[in-house]
Request: fold
Amino acid sequence: MATAQALRGYLLEEALAWLLRNSGYSLITQGDKDGSEIVQRRNTLHVVGRGAEHQVDALGEFPFTPAFSLPIRLFLEAKFYDKNRTCGLDVVRNAHGVISDVNQNFTYGSGSRPRRRYHYSYALFSTSGFSKSAQQFALAHQISLIDLSGDSFTWLREHIHTLAYALSAASPGQNIPKRIVSWVRTFVRLSLESPGEAPGESFALIDERLSAPADEAVQDALNNFVQGLNGHGEAELLIGFPAAPFILPLHTSNRKGFLDYATRNPVHPVRIRRTADHGGSEWALTPRDGDADSYRLTFTLPQHIENWIVSAGEDGKRRRSAAIKADFLSNITIYRMKHSALNVYQLMYEPTELRRR
Reply:
């Protein structure tokens, strides 16, 4: 059984898989033939660790192997708590335990068949931020935390809230059976053109206790959710990799504008501006040369960095913002897939371009 809160998290994971569809990671939906790395248990995938198997709801694989490394796979987990509850230390500690176990899954025996190895990473997304202890632990153990509480993701949070409410209202009990959750995820994934198998029946056939009007309401909510996301077809979540111990979720509502500019200028200088003076501010990134309106990428920085910036006076905030940009954001790399080809873009920030709105 899944609570309404858990259902929101599952829907967020499917939406993120869609938003990240061109970020370079391909979604894994089936187990390995030999079961050495990934096994399928009913409708869920489990990654094999040294000591246990670990269920994974969204797992991606990077298309190429970085130098002096192993092929990279990424656990994606999303938390959609109420506004007054942040993602806590327990969730991040569990993520660390999972990747520690799966990255040690290697045995060697004389005469055994050679097999591939992977390096697993973990990314946690939260619509309400992360606690201080969770941030500190994640920073120490290289767990990526992505905060989706900013204004750029309001539309996404609202769509998920609406669908989750409709599904909860249609469920006879307080919690939602796993078979219904699995059906909904498959429906959403297929409808958003992610890999998956189409449900062959209506929602009412999944839950025979559902009345015809309730079934119609759920179907309408599902279709509205998919249409709402497809209506933001130009929206995309790009992943920026700066020379820093964190990654940047770069949101754009004008995908074409960014791609047109970046295709002409795969390496180009940018301006970076902090858009507010409080601890929950967003940052905006635009091209420095040519038309500054060609594209606009927005992102947030880890909360402990924002807290450090705002703890200074007015002049101190300007100096600290400049220091963060110079030390951590001077070179941001973006990977994007197009027609099975990997494109690499580099956004270069020069400290002399400090501007503040």
In short: DSSP finds ten helices and 15 strands in the chain. The mean pLDDT is 86. The chain has two domains: 1-233, 236-353.
